[in-house]
Design goal:
By secondary structure, the protein is an all-alpha fold. The protein is built from four helices and no strands. The longest helix has 43 residues. The chain starts with a helix and ends with a helix.
Length: 182
């Protein structure tokens, strides 16, 4: 009888570990997709991007073109940082996650590492979104000119990315909580 309880406990520990590892793997996958988007954005950036807007006051300056590159490089750094933290936490879990070794003090630390990784991904997405907004201004015209196409593109982008980020944040919050409790 006692042995069955121990096997059941080991099964629960494995189940909890697998849930956390799956969430970490999903985080790394998302970071990889965004990293590819960063490189596509950087490869398309070129000096003297001409806008479709003909009014001179609606044309963007070179500062926005430089900002696109800066924001994309920083977002790339955020995605790499997040992925490395997530992978490190995964390695830790594979090596040390058991009922005997996994003390209650380490649970909040695991959750904190997971949270920092998630926040780095969110920061990377925010910076990547900001760089895309600048790309819209460079190509379609400054938002201050209230060009219908530019406003539609930016509002659509912000709403869609915002809803996606909130959804992702809430689902990952459950994984972080799971990481801290079990």
């Amino acid at each position: 009888m006692a042995r069955n309880g121990g096997e059941e406990e080991d099964s629960d520990i494995k189940k909890h570990k697998d849930i956390i590892l799956k969430a970490l793997e999903d985080l790394v996958t998302v970071n990889s997709l965004f990293t590819m988007a960063v490189f596509v954005g950087i490869s398309m950036a070129s000096p003297n991007n001409n806008t479709f807007e003909t009014r001179p006051e609606c044309q963007s300056d070179t500062k926005k073109e430089k900002s696109v590159i800066v924001f994309e490089i920083i977002s790339f750094g955020c995605f790499i940082f997040s992925s490395m933290l997530a992978k490190s936490l995964g390695i830790y879990l594979n090596m040390f996650y058991s009922g005997k070794v996994n003390g209650s003090l380490l649970k909040p630390i695991r959750g904190l590492v997971f949270l920092v990784s998630l926040l780095a991904t969110i920061a990377g997405v925010a910076l990547l979104t900001w760089s895309v907004i600048y790309v819209v201004e460079i190509k379609v015209g400054n938002l201050s000119c209230e060009t219908e196409e530019a406003l539609f593109a930016v509002v659509s982008l912000v709403v869609l990315v915002g809803v996606a980020l909130l959804s992702y944040l809430f689902s990952m919050a459950f994984a972080i909580l799971h990481c801290m409790v079990f």
